[in-house]
Structure formats: structure tokens, C-alpha cells
Amino acid sequence: MTKITILIHCKDQPNIIASITNFIAQKGGNIVYIDQYVDREQDIFFMRLESEFAAESFSTIDFKAAFKSELAEVFKMKWRIYSSEKKPKMALFISKYDHCLYDLLGRYNSGELNLEIPFIISNHRDLEHIAKNFNIPFYHIPVTKDTKKEAENKQLELLEAHKIDFIVLARYMQIVSDRLISKYPNKIINIHHSFLPAFVGAKPYHSAYKRGVKIIGATSHYVTEELDAGPIIEQDVARVSHAHAITDLIAKGRDLEKVVLANAVKLHANRKVMVYNNKTVIFT
């Protein structure tokens, strides 16, 4: 069987669901998942659908062409169709923190993540041994104020050569340029603590500790030109108290970061995220 996933959004109007499901049936497909949502304020219809077809009689190219002419153009849809035959390719960007890297590679190695990791890029060599342990190519591309453009050229060369679908910043401690963002819109995933903008800077957990916070958290989002303001994919929190030391906050925070980033990666890789007006619709 060939399984495809369809993501759609368009202006809400009558007969969208019936037209799509009838189209799938006419093409010999069996719908195994369907979910939809209507944003009443924006009057926008969103849908995610999974369907199976007999592999010997199905052509993704022909299906896309028919979908475009018979449905997408009629309803003025913005749409994407993905085949399960092709796993998305993810590039990892890292610096010196290893907790998110270990977690993602462990999940990848166990088959939990439906994706491929062609390589890891880092501006330091500190974690190169981890890439070697997991048999993933590692590229050291230093970034300084004077070499930033040259570094980006090397990064883009690798990304294009390996036909990367999306990028994950697994605690990559560099600001991604507008140039890279424009090449991968809503395809660069970042992770950070949820103290922003209240506790910015290099030691947010120390600042939070001094303020006696009762909740700490983590947020994973798509990277946009506005720093740490992109569409949010996943978030989680943990309660803390006066009895927790700074080291406890850091440990709890890193645990949250690992889980939140992994969940965001899975949602993206499984085509369960739709972005509209700097917000996300998450299909679970």
C-alpha cells in the first residue's frame, strides 16, 4: 500500500469535505485519518487527511495533478501532498550543549522518529564524538563575526547537496540569518526556555531562581526573522518551589527542553503542523 498525507487550508465554504472524500474514493483510496478545523475569526478551513492506495495502481504525480485541477483550483486551496515512501531529511545544528542532541539521536536510533539525519553541523568540535558514536557525518563550521557569511555559504551548500527538508537547532547558540530563514520558511525548529522575555541572557535559570518562580518551562517554535517570536509548535511546564536549587531548575529545564523539542520534531516530521498568520494548527 502507498500512504499519502494531504494538508489543506482555504477560505471556509460549503462542500469541501464531501468533495475531498468523494475524490479520494473515486481514485480508489481508503481514508484512514481525517481531521479538520475552522478558524471562525479568520474564516479559514484547515484539514489533514491520510489515505491508502494500492501501490501497483497509484501514481503520486498523477494524483497531485488531478487534485490540483479538480479540487485545489476550484476551492482556491493552499495544499501539500506527501507520500509515506519519502522520509523527511532533517539537519541538526548544535553548539556545546548535548542534552537535546543525545535525546534526539537516541530516539532516532530506536526508530521513534520518522525521518533521516544526513549530517550534523556545529560551530564547535566539542560534541563531534557523539556524532561518531551514532555514525552520523559531522561538519565543523566555525562562526565568527568576520566569517558568518562564509559559514552560511558552507551550511547552505550542505543543506542543498543533501536535499534537506528541515533544520533543528538543538541548542545551537547562534542567531540564524534572514538568508537561511528565507530558504527554509517554517522549516527551522528551535528550542528555548519559556522565561522569555522575562528572563533573557546567558543565565535565565539563575534569574528565575532569584525571582522565586513557581513554574519553569520550554517552548519549541519555528524560527522567523523576529528573534524567538515564530509560530509555537510545542510547550510544557514543570512546577518548582523554594526548596529547589539552581542546579535543580537547570536539570528540570533541560528535561523539559528534550521532551518539548522531540515532540515538536515528531509533529513536524509526521506532517501534523500547519502554520497560518504566525500561529499553528496542530493535528494530533
Blueprint of the fold:
Elements: E1 2-11, H1 16-26, E2 30-39, E3 44-53, H2 60-75, E4 78-83, E5 90-94, H3 99-109, E6 120-122, H4 128-133, E7 138-140, H5 148-161, E8 166-169, H6 178-183, E9 188-193, H7 204-211, E10 215-222, E11 232-239, H8 246-269, E12 273-276, E13 279-282
Parallel strand pairs: 5-6, 5-8, 6-7, 8-9
Antiparallel strand pairs: 1-3, 1-4, 2-3, 9-10, 10-11, 12-13
Helix pairs in contact: 1-2, 3-8
Features:
284 residues, alpha/beta, 7-stranded mixed beta sheet, 4-stranded antiparallel beta sheet, 34% helix
Run of helices and strands? EHEEHEEHEHEHEHEHEEHEE
State the oligomer. single chain
Largest beta-sheet details: 7 strands, mixed
Mean pLDDT, to the nearest integer, reads 94
- The count of helical stretches stands at 8
Radius of gyration over C-alpha positions, nearest whole angstrom: 21 Å
Described by the principal axes of the CA atoms, the overall outline is globular
Number of strands: 13
What fraction, in percent, of the residue positions are helical? 25-40%
Class of secondary structure makeup: alpha/beta
> Ranges with pLDDT <50 over ≥5 residues?
none
Beta-strand content? 25-35%
Order of strands side by side in the largest beta sheet? 7-6-5-8-9-10-11
The separation of the N and C termini measures: 23 Å
How would you describe this protein?
The chain is of the alpha/beta class and 284 residues long. 34% of the residues lie in helices and 29% in strands. It is built from 8 helices and 13 strands. α3 links the parallel β5 and β6 (120-122). The protein starts with a strand and ends with a strand.
